[in-house]
């Protein structure tokens, strides 16, 4: 039989220590802060403080979390950054009050993220930066309330498809990934542009028509790597893309 891998000892946390670490935030929430304490094993005594709304276990030595994590039914904010986590328990999906989850600077791969993570219906901020992700699981597209997503410093070789499926997403950090050179956005990205207005070319004033033509040639040249006069137009003026406000203003100027 192989030798059993010894668990790191780390610092022991007692219930008395944990109780003393509970503070009120400026907005009146109970926060348990046990960050940067050399904790290697999740202290079972914390389950007796399950009414806290914020839990900070960042900058420790944690390798795993217990399946009893869902005992923290009121938890809105959970910070686990800078540990040694390789996977998350299925119980994380039962933290239905959770709004902010920081998992950055761990050892998480796609296999270490349970599908239950997609059940966090109210989650608004998810930080998965500085991990070992070479793909982003599709089940994260179920996070319909997500506003912020950190994916920086991973192993992503392409833009995750789920980004187009998150309707309220406002901020994405994908810095320091082995991504290919930037390419023009796909056509379906046009759906996110506000005030997009499709008009026949002969309905525009001369100035507006000229601006649209120049912008189309600029985008065509980016896609082909050629200068505008080296590439034939993709279409002959039947339809041009113009922001609604610009089209209206320029028509007024041309009259």
From TrEMBL:
<dbReference type="Pfam" id="PF00560">
    <property type="entry name" value="LRR_1"/>
</dbReference>
<dbReference type="InterPro" id="IPR003591">
    <property type="entry name" value="Leu-rich_rpt_typical-subtyp"/>
</dbReference>
<protein>
    <submittedName>
        <fullName>Leucine-rich repeat-containing protein 18</fullName>
    </submittedName>
</protein>
<dbReference type="GO" id="GO:0005737">
    <property type="term" value="C:cytoplasm"/>
</dbReference>
<dbReference type="InterPro" id="IPR001611">
    <property type="entry name" value="Leu-rich_rpt"/>
</dbReference>
<dbReference type="InterPro" id="IPR032675">
    <property type="entry name" value="LRR_dom_sf"/>
</dbReference>
<keyword id="KW-0677">Repeat</keyword>
<dbReference type="InterPro" id="IPR050216">
    <property type="entry name" value="LRR_domain-containing"/>
</dbReference>
<dbReference type="Pfam" id="PF13855">
    <property type="entry name" value="LRR_8"/>
</dbReference>
<keyword id="KW-0433">Leucine-rich repeat</keyword>
